[in-house]
Design goal:
This protein has 443 residues and is α/β, with parallel strands linked by helices. The protein is built from 19 helices and 14 strands. The protein binds uridine-5'-diphosphate-xylopyranose.
């Protein structure tokens, strides 16, 4: 099938490439020439496992090309996926849907009768119905649908090729059938197809993210209780998660969630619920947000205690800058926010990350950066473990001991092996973990 994908950010680019890979003819559209030019030459602006190979292959197949022109898009196909950003409104909490509105307004006079415009962007419930009215005012014989995206960064290609579910909110049987046909290879591989009204489909997306964020904040709230009670949140999470009704995933305690989705999506959801007069029903999401942000201040407070009450003149080595392991994305990164707060309090902070240094440097030029862990920790009075990259679990505490000034580490991700560090003479402190062998500090 012929289609266009408008917006070549994370979701759009991966979607365009994967659609071309399963045999569709795709034009990826973006008004940003600086984005389209490298893509046309097969250079991807984002790093995702498998994406570069797929981009090269689909460009070579002739089934994928890129354009900066919506008119070109409208001439090429009658099916258009809209994948533009819906960030947090500047100075507010609601989602800023102006880019989505602009695509509809710009495309409406160009589309042929019978066109289908499918939103993949995460939008407040009710947006698709509103956009439908807006589209029909100009293009009465065209329609909208919504098909939310659930991909995770770091797994974008595999999540898109082998999704667990396809959710479609359509206003007509015809639109539903078009989407079934588009996703047929995924449905054959076992993805479940949910066809529903647009409002329900929009809510599936935000409810999923709200649930996952709540699960993380729940375990982090338990970590705070553990700190007060002298209990161990890591064992608690393990035992609680063993109940198959609860499960282990998204029950990893620590510094909490960041990234481009969870924080802004739960705020936008709470704001939309208030507009709908049901703010009370999901008021708990405000607390989910607060608990999450509190882990950052708890980490700074504990770090300050560990260096004797003041950061002035202290050297702090930071392990991790990305918002999560497996990603070079630093948007709303808890790690960089903690590093920056400590720097503002007078510490000299040197940050290591296996992938995200370039992005970190652009966003936080005031911090220092190091290409390897020993360099980041040279002369450190304290080492902070802030992003749970697997390689940090393999650090030799013995070897690192030779470069630091003081053998103190704060594991704000609760993934390091406390015994190994302690037996190498380190004081390992962690969020939600009690003193073990007399060496854990408490918040
Ligand atoms: C998320 C959703 O998972 C995805 O379905 C949606 O489409 C976009 O938002 P992503 O932002 O890529 O994806 O990251 P995810 O892997 O979900 O992690 C989100 C944050 O939660 C990260 O900062 C991560 O470190 C944190 N996290 C995750 C925890 O703190 N504990 C956990 O147990 C799991």
């Amino acid at each position: 099938m012929r289609m266009t994908v408008i917006g070549t950010g994370y979701v759009g680019l991966v979607h365009a490439v994967c659609m071309a890979d399963i045999g569709h003819e795709v034009v990826g559209v973006d008004t940003d020439e600086a984005r389209i030019a490298p893509l046309t030459e097969g250079r991807s602006p984002i790093h995702e496992p498998g994406l570069d190979e797929l981009l090269t292959r689909t460009l070579a197949s002739g089934r994928l090309r890129f354009s900066t022109s919506l008119a070109d898009a409208a001439r090429f196909a009658d099916v258009h996926f809209v994948c533009v950003g819906t960030p947090q409104m500047p100075g507010g909490e609601a989602a800023d849907v102006r880019q989505v509105d602009a695509v509809i307004d710009d495309l409406a006079p160009l589309v042929r009768p019978g066109s289908l415009i499918i939103g993949k962007s995460t939008v407040p419930v009710g947006t698709t119905a509103r956009l439908g009215a807006r589209l029909r005012a100009v293009a009465p014989h065209s329609e909208v649908a919504v098909n939310p995206e659930f991909l995770r960064e770091g797994f974008a290609v595999s999540d898109t090729r082998r999704p667990e579910r396809i959710v479609v909110g359509a206003e007509s049987r015809r639109a539903e059938m078009v989407l079934r046909e588009i996703y047929e290879p995924m449905l054959i591989s076992g993805a479940r197809f949910f066809s529903t009204d647009p409002a329900t489909a929009e809510l599936v997306k935000v409810a999923s993210n709200a649930f996952l964020a709540t699960k993380i904040s729940f375990i982090n709230a338990m970590a705070e209780v553990c700190d007060a009670a002298g209990a161990d949140v890591v064992t608690l999470a393990d035992a609680v998660g063993q109940d198959s009704r609860i499960g282990h995933r998204f029950l990893q305690p620590g510094l909490g969630f960041g990234g481009s989705c969870f924080p802004k999506d739960i705020r936008a959801f709470a704001a939309r619920a208030e507009e709908l007069g049901v703010g009370e029903a999901i008021a708990f999401l405000r607390q989910v947000d607060e608990i999450n942000l509190r882990q950052r201040t708890r980490t700074v407070d504990l770090a300050r205690d560990l260096v004797g009450g003041s950061f002035t003149g202290r050297h702090v080595g930071v392990l991790g800058a990305a918002f999560k392991p497996g990603s070079d994305d630093v948007r709303d990164s808890p790690a960089l926010e903690v590093a920056s707060a400590i720097r503002r309090e007078g510490a000299e902070v040197r940050v290591h990350d296996p992938e995200a240094l370039d992005n970190a440097r652009r966003g936080f030029p005031e911090l220092q950066y190091a290409f390897d862990v020993p360099k980041a920790c040279e002369d450190a009075d304290l080492v902070l473990h802030l992003t749970a990259w697997p390689e940090y679990r393999d650090i030799s505490p013995d070897r690192l001991a030779s470069v630091v000034r003081s053998r103190k580490i704060l594991d704000a991700r609760d993934t390091l092996d406390a015994t190994t560090w302690q037996s190498a003479g380190w004081t390992l402190s962690a969020l939600g973990r009690p003193p073990t062998n007399g060496t854990y500090a408490s918040a």
